[in-house]
Amino acid sequence: MPRTKKFNTKYSPEFKLSVILDMREHGLGYPETVRKYWGDSVNADNYKNRVKRWERIYLEEGAGGFMVERRGRSSKGRPRKKPLEKEVENDLIAENQRLKEQNQYLEAELEYLKKLDALVRAEEQRNGKKPK
Fold first, then answer.
1. How far apart are CA 29 and CA 25, in angstroms?
2. In the chain, which ranges are E strands?
3. pLDDT > 70 fraction of the chain, expressed in percent and rounded
């Protein structure tokens, strides 16, 4: 005897919302809701638990909760970065700019000292003194 219903059927968020809203509007219990939408031939306990879960999601998260995919294992990977507060971001930008300016100053100072050292050595060689 072939099965007529596939396992792991995915219901649309609109369908889930319509089931819950209909159940709440008409004051239906879980068994009545299951009979109305899936008939008497299904395993009522499985569908009753499904409707309970949908109702819990609706009450906790609202209609938007049905848009979230809940099947499968959740991601255990690298967590997403949270955006910085505007004030902290501005402080980091100012600090970065200050450090860039300081780095440019120190590089210029180093170049100056290198040239000065080269001039001193050249002068010492012209005068016949040994460099230190």
1. 11
2. none
3. 91
